[in-house]
Design brief:
The structure holds 2 protein chains of 2 kinds.
Chain A lengths: L1 H6 L3 E7 L5 H20 E6 L11 E7 L2 E3 H12 L1 E7 L1 H5 L11 H13 L2 E6 L9 E3 L6 H14 L5
Parallel strand pairs in A: 1-2, 1-3, 3-5, 5-7
Antiparallel strand pairs in A: 4-6
Helix pairs in contact in A: 2-6
Chain B lengths: L5 E5 L9 E8 L2 E9 L6 H4 L8 H6 L6 H16 L5 H31 L12 H25 L19 H27 L9 E6 L9 E4 L4 E2 L8 E4 L8 E4 L4 E2 L2 H8 L5 H6 L1 H4 L9 H23 L15 E9 L2 E9 L5 E7 L1 H22 L4 H15 L3 H4 L9
The chains are: A alpha/beta, B alpha+beta.
C-alpha cells in the first residue's frame, strides 16, 4: 500500500505566461511530443493553460513563468504564483531580463509620448520589468526562446528533488 | 425561454494562443451584448522597429509571436525585398516554402490535436485521454505529426521558433541529399496518421453557418507565401493594394484593433484559403482526401478546423515533392545595399493573411511600419458570430452551460492568436 502511494507521487507543476510572444510555451509544447507519456505519469499539471481548462494556482512544487511584467494585474498574478510555489523559474529572455517585451523602456521621449494613451487606457506600467524585479526567482532559463535541453535538465532536477525520480 | 437572463463571463480562455476574455449578456432571451476582450498586453512592435536597420527588422518582428514567428520573418523579408528591389533565387523560394510548411504542420497540429481534439471526444484535455485503445493510439500519432513539423522547421530554417536561416535575398543553408531523404521518410511515415485526423474532423458534428467575404492567397500550388489575394466574391487584389480595402476599427475593450473589408466583417485563415484556392491543393492530397475536400467551399465556421487538417496533409505532400525533386546546391549570399524605398510583404500565416508594410530611409533605417494580423482581421466576425451562435442556441432551447461549452469550442474553431493581434502601436482615444 505504502509502495503504491510512493509510486503515485507527482511533481506539482505550473506554467504561466505574462507579456511575451509565448515562444517558450511553443518549446514546452513541442517537448511534450517526446516526453508526454513520461511526464503524464510523473507530473500533476496544476496550472497549464495550453493543455487544460481547469487550472488553479495552488500548492505547486515548481512554477515556470515566461514573459515580462507590464501591468499591475500581472504583478499580482506573479506574487500569487510565488506564494503558491516552492520554486519559481523564469523562462526565456522576457522573464529573465524584461527584453524584448520591454523594448518600449528604451523608446525616445517622442515615441514614449505617442504610446502613452494606450499605456493609460490599458493600465500598463510605464516601465516593463523582469520577473526577478518583482519576486524571488530560484532559477533562470535564458534564451529567446529558452533552450529545450536546459528546460529538460531543470525539470529533471526537480523530479529528483521531489522524489518523483529515484 | 423569452424571460431567460444570464451573463457568461470567461475571464481567461484556455487552449488558445495568448490571453483573451469574453463577456456575453443575455436579457429576455436575446443576446444583448458580446465583448471579446483580447487582453494580451501590448508590446508596441511597430514603434520598436522604427529606426532599426532593414537587415534586422525580420528578427525584431519575429518576436511578435512564437508560434507564427516563421510567417512574420518571411513576411518581413519579402517586404524588405520589395522595398529594395531584391529578387531571391528559385531555391531560396523553395526553402521558404518548406519553412512555411514546417511551421504550418507544427502549428495546425498543436491547435487541432492538443486544443480541439478533446472537444470532439468530450474531454477537457488530452491528459484525460485513455491510456490504451484508440485514444492512446491517437495521442501517439498526434505527437508524431507535431514532431515532424517541428523537425522540418528546424532542419530547413534552423529553429522552429524565431529561426535564423531565412534572410533578405538568400537562404544560407540547404539540406544535404541524405537529410532531404530522411525528411521525406519522416513525412511519409506520418502521412496516414494526418489523413486519419482529417477523417476525424470531417466526421465532427459541429455546425454554425455564417457567410462572409473569405480572403486568401491564390496561386497554382497552394503556397503560403506566393501569389495574389483572391476574395470569395471573385475580386483579385494585388498585395500592394490590400490595405486600401481595409478599415481599422478600434474596439475599446480589446487590446487589438479589428478590421473590416469594404465596410463588412470578413474571414481569413484555412477555411478562407480552401474557399478561394481549393483547386490548387497538391494532387496527391486531392486524391487521398476527395470526400473531405468536397465539403468546400463552405460557410460552416467549424470547417476551419477541417481545412487546417487538410492543410497539414497538403504541407506534407508538397514538402515531399520539393525535397524529392530539388537538387539543393550551395548558393552565394546576395549583398543587399540599403536605399530609400517602400515595400509590402504578404504571406499566409497559419491563421490567415499576414501583411507587413514598411518604408526605409536612404541609410536603410525603418521610418514607417504598418502590420495587419490575421486574428485582428477575424476579430469583428468572430465577435458577431459568437452573438449569432448564442442566439441560435437560445432559440433552440439550449441552456447556459451547454452554450458556455459550445462558445469555447467555437472560439477554438477560429484559432485566434492574441500574441500576434495585440502587437501594435497607438490608438487615439477620444
Amino acid at each position: 500500500m505504502l509502495e503504491n502511494l510512493v509510486m503515485q507521487k507527482k511533481l506539482r507543476f505550473g506554467w504561466f505566461t505574462l507579456t511575451c510572444s509565448e515562444d517558450n510555451t511553443i518549446i514546452f509544447v513541442e517537448l511534450i511530443n517526446r516526453h508526454y507519456f513520461e511526464w503524464k505519469d510523473k507530473i500533476k499539471f496544476v496550472y497549464c493553460k495550453p493543455l487544460q481548462s481547469n487550472n488553479k494556482i495552488t500548492r505547486m512544487d515548481v512554477a515556470y513563468v515566461e514573459g515580462a511584467v507590464s501591468s499591475l494585474h500581472e504583478e499580482k498574478l506573479l506574487k500569487k504564483v510565488r506564494a503558491n510555489s516552492r520554486y519559481l523559474v523564469a523562462v526565456g529572455a522576457c522573464a529573465c531580463t524584461g527584453m524584448p517585451s520591454g523594448q518600449r523602456n528604451l523608446f525616445n521621449d517622442a515615441t514614449k509620448k505617442s504610446i502613452r494613451p494606450s499605456i493609460k487606457r490599458y493600465n500598463l506600467y510605464e516601465k516593463v520589468k523582469a520577473v526577478k524585479d518583482i519576486v524571488k526567482t530560484d532559477a533562470m532559463l535564458f534564451g529567446c526562446p529558452m533552450s529545450a535541453d536546459s528546460f529538460v535538465m531543470n525539470i529533471n532536477g526537480y523530479l529528483k528533488e521531489f522524489g518523483v525520480d529515484k | 425561454m423569452h424571460r431567460i437572463n444570464f451573463d457568461l463571463n470567461f475571464e481567461e480562455l484556455s487552449k488558445v494562443e495568448g490571453h483573451a476574455g469574453l463577456d456575453i449578456a443575455v436579457r429576455n432571451g436575446r443576446v444583448k451584448d458580446v465583448r471579446l476582450r483580447m487582453t494580451h498586453n501590448k508590446r508596441f512592435f511597430t514603434s520598436a522597429v522604427i529606426g532599426k536597420q532593414f537587415s534586422n527588422a525580420h528578427q525584431i518582428l519575429s518576436r511578435i509571436c512564437g508560434t507564427c514567428s516563421i510567417a512574420h520573418i518571411i513576411c518581413s523579408i519579402k517586404c524588405m525585398e520589395d522595398a529594395l528591389g531584391v529578387i531571391p533565387s528559385k531555391q531560396t523560394k523553395i526553402l521558404r516554402d518548406l519553412s512555411m510548411y514546417g511551421m504550418t504542420i507544427r502549428d495546425h497540429a498543436m491547435h487541432l490535436y492538443l486544443f480541439c481534439l478533446p472537444d470532439i471526444f468530450g474531454k477537457d484535455s488530452v491528459l484525460e485521454f485513455a491510456d490504451n485503445g484508440r485514444e492512446h493510439d491517437l495521442i501517439h500519432k498526434a505527437f508524431q505529426i507535431k514532431e515532424a513539423g517541428n523537425i522540418l522547421s528546424k532542419e530547413i530554417a534552423g529553429r522552429a521558433v524565431h529561426p535564423v536561416y531565412p534572410i533578405i535575398g538568400s537562404f544560407p543553408h540547404r539540406p544535404t541529399k541524405e537529410k532531404a531523404r530522411a525528411l521525406i521518410n519522416m513525412l511519409e511515415k506520418c502521412r496516414d496518421a494526418a489523413i486519419e485526423f482529417v477523417d476525424i474532423f470531417n466526421d465532427a458534428s459541429f455546425i454554425f453557418e455564417s457567410d462572409a467575404e473569405f480572403i486568401g492567397l491564390s496561386n497554382p500550388d497552394f503556397s503560403f507565401q506566393r501569389g495574389e489575394l483572391l476574395t470569395s466574391g471573385g475580386l483579385c487584389i494585388p498585395s500592394i493594394s490590400f490595405r486600401k480595402f481595409l478599415q481599422k476599427t478600434i474596439i475599446p475593450y480589446s487590446q487589438a484593433p479589428g478590421f473590416s473589408f469594404q465596410g463588412r466583417p470578413y474571414m481569413v485563415g484555412a477555411l478562407a484559403r480552401l474557399n478561394v484556392n481549393l483547386a490548387s491543393l497538391n494532387k496527391r492530397t486531392k486524391k487521398s482526401l476527395s470526400s473531405s475536400i468536397a465539403k468546400f467551399p463552405s460557410i460552416n465556421v467549424y470547417h476551419n478546423n477541417l481545412a487546417q487538417a487538410i492543410e497539414i496533409v497538403h504541407s506534407i505532400d508538397h514538402s515531399i515533392e520539393f525535397l524529392d525533386s530539388t537538387d539543393f546546391k550551395e548558393e552565394p549570399v546576395q549583398t543587399v545595399k540599403p536605399k530609400e524605398g517602400e515595400g509590402v510583404g504578404l504571406v499566409e500565416a497559419p491563421r490567415g493573411t499576414l501583411y507587413h508594410h514598411m518604408k526605409l530611409a536612404a541609410n536603410g533605417s525603418v521610418t514607417y511600419a504598418d502590420l495587419v494580423i490575421p486574428t485582428s482581421q477575424n476579430q469583428v466576425k468572430m465577435e458577431n458570430d459568437i452573438g449569432r451562435l448564442v442566439q441560435q442556441r437560445l432559440d433552440e432551447g439550449k441552456g447556459k452551460e451547454a452554450i458556455r461549452k459550445e462558445v469555447e469550442v467555437f472560439i477554438r474553431a477560429f484559432d485566434p492568436c492574441m500574441s500576434c493581434a495585440t502587437h501594435f502601436l497607438k490608438i487615439k482615444w477620444g
